[in-house]
Amino acid sequence: MSLNDTPGSSRIHIGLFGCRNVGKSSLMNAVTGQDLAVVSAVKGTTTDPVRKAMELLPLGPVVITDTPGFDDEGELGELRVKKTRQKLATTDIAILVTDATRGMNDDEKELLSIIQAKEIPCVIAYNKCDQLETVPDHTEKEIWVSAATGQNIFELKEMLGRLAPKQTTLRLVGDVIKPKDVVVLVTPIDESAPKGRMILPQVQAIRDILDSDAIVMTTKETELAETLAALKEDPAIVITDSQAFEIVDQIVPDRIPLTSFSIMLARYKGFLDEAVAGAAAIDDLAEGARILVAEGCTHHRQCNDIGTVKLPNWLKQATGHDFVYETVSGTEFPEDPGGYDLILHCGGCMLTEREVLSRMHAAQDQDVPFTNYGITIAKLTGTLERSLRIFPKLHDLVI
Asked: Residue-wise over 266-290: b if at least 16 C-beta within 10 A, else e?
């Protein structure tokens, strides 16, 4: 994926699920028009999810994933099935592929019930319909296709288009500013900053501000005071990286609205209310409490890593307690997070809204408080109340 491509977190994620040897890989190749997945008559050819980011009409930018068979066997098979179940958490639209010559079996019915329980829009694709004497009529969510001949592949794409999740009207920044407003973004450049580029929320904020016909100024915290002094009028809002919040709070006059990328992103992903409530649980953590630190992507951890070093140190300073920390990254979020006293999640910029909310709901089902790095930092530095003033309803819950 090039630097100018739509990020995966902003794409519609389509997953192909089903048993071994029903033609999932062949169907993925037919839908994408490319030979992406290895096709074989041998069961279990697909051993790991195969992903492809592309433009797929009428949906637009998507990620299509072919998953291992849900009926895989043995010790390795169980691991593959686990990967398949994990993939459901990131899926916006599921294609349940079955063999049209035999109909759905018990494994596929179980898989369908899991998909339905997760409220994932689903198409049941009966593959190999070219081997039938009579092809049944399609229903609203069932279609008979042939990956081998291409029969009804176009109709399948059209069906996927109708199931596409509705685009949210919420903006990252644009709905709290107006045209010609000046927005100042504070983006520290330290050892954790990616070399030669900016992190995704910062880039998305810049684009959203420009799309709003507003003016964006970007500076480091070390030049923030000079930046504000150079302006003839106060900016409409200052948005900062969470790790610089305490410094920025001292520089930005109280009359100027101030918040963080992490807080804006939590609102955009749909879990700001829950994250604020989750952060309140920090006050009740006892000595030895178990905290899960979860990150949506994998990266090389540096000596001053925020999730494994900075946050534990800040929590120790704020509470006086030592806690037990466990860390997961990428797709390794536990299906059942019960047993933890708190989940600290990253901002989730590389995750889809569905995946972040799926993790939050898994925590809620086990009565485990769920929050994110930025809101936790704001709470620990005493800046949470100020950072939520632009959202009066939430602000009133904090003060």
From this structure: bbbbebbebbbbbbebbeebeeebe
> Nearest-5° angle of CA 212, CA 217, CA 223?
160
Higher-scoring residue by pLDDT: 3, 243: 243
Give the CATH number for residue 210: 3.40.50.11420
Residue 338 belongs to a domain:
yes
Question: Phi and psi at residue 120, in whole multiples of 5°?
Answer: -95, 125
Helix (H, G, I), strand (E, B) or coil at 346: coil
The mean pLDDT of 109-132, rounded to a whole number, is: 92
Amino acid (one-letter) located at 103: G
Instruction: Give me the pLDDT at residue 151, please.
Output: 95
| pTM greater than the 0.85 cutoff | no
The residue with tokens 């420009």 is 210
Residue 365 or residue 48, greater confidence = 365
- Over 80: is that where the pLDDT of 108 sits? yes
DSSP 272-333: HHHHHHHHHGGGGPPTT-EEEEEESS--PPPTT-IIIIIHHHHHHHHH----EEEEEETT--
- Name the percent of the chain in helix, strand, coil, to the closest 5: 40, 20, 45
Residue 211 reports pLDDT greater than 90: yes
Does residue 252 share a domain with residue 137? no
How many domains does the chain fold into? 3
| Residue 168 within any structural domain of the chain | no
DSSP string, 157-215: HHHHHHHSPPPP---SSGGG--TT-EEEEE---STTSPTTS--HHHHHHHHHHHHTT-E
Question: Is a pLDDT exceeding 70 seen at residue 36?
Answer: no
Residue 171 domain-assigned (yes or no): no
DSSP 3-state of 152:
coil
Helix (H, G, I), strand (E, B) or coil at 68: coil
Higher pLDDT, 76 or 399: 76
pLDDT recorded at residue 37: 47
347, 210: one domain: no
What are the structure tokens assigned to 140, written together?
């609203």
Determine the structural domain holding residue 76 and report its residue range. Answer: 8-163
CA torsion 182→214→390→394, rounded to 10°?
-150
State residue 42's pLDDT score.
46
Pick from 234, 264, 294: which residue ends a domain?
Answer: 264
| Residue 136 DSSP label | P
Q: Are 234 and 353 found together in one domain?
A: no
